[in-house]
Amino acid sequence: xxxxxxxxxxxxxxxxxxxxxxxxxxxxxxxxxxxxxxxxxxxxxxxxxxxxxxxxxxxxxxxxxxxxxxxxxxxxxxxxxxxxxxxxxxxxxxxxxxxxxxxxxxxxxxxxxxxxxxxxxxxxxxxxxxxxxxxxxxxxxxxxxxxxxxxxxxxxxxxxxxxxxxxxxxxxx
Length: 173
Fold this sequence. Notes:
Blueprint lengths: L1 H24 L5 H17 L4 E5 L2 E13 L13 E19 L10 E4 L3 E10 L4 E10 L4 H14 L2 E3 L6
Helix pairs in contact: 2-3
């Protein structure tokens, strides 16, 4: 009889403990990320059926044909760093799309939007203010030289229009 009470207490404490861990450790994926992932899946999976979709609570990364490069950073004065660093980027026929929901108002040093032209790939970097709250999407869309202009423009259009958002700046490619 005493043993049964101890087992019941143990089971009850285990359930309570597991519930506390799951509640405190669980973060729902942001609605803006969920909406964009659904809208982007159709067009991306149609053209790139093996594209990888990775979602975290406030982050979405979609990639196809990506590899790690050794990059010598060029700063705003044109100086090239002596030491190379590793950076993931798309191959000539791939892309890497990173979208992060950031709470608050953009206060970064970069004047966005920007088109970054690199030796291996180009990137469009921009923000999209979310309409229903004080937050924005920080978007970096890197793509290889063989990715069509139409595909890039379509993805950017979906991000701007599909996130229930108001766009800051415009993208010219």
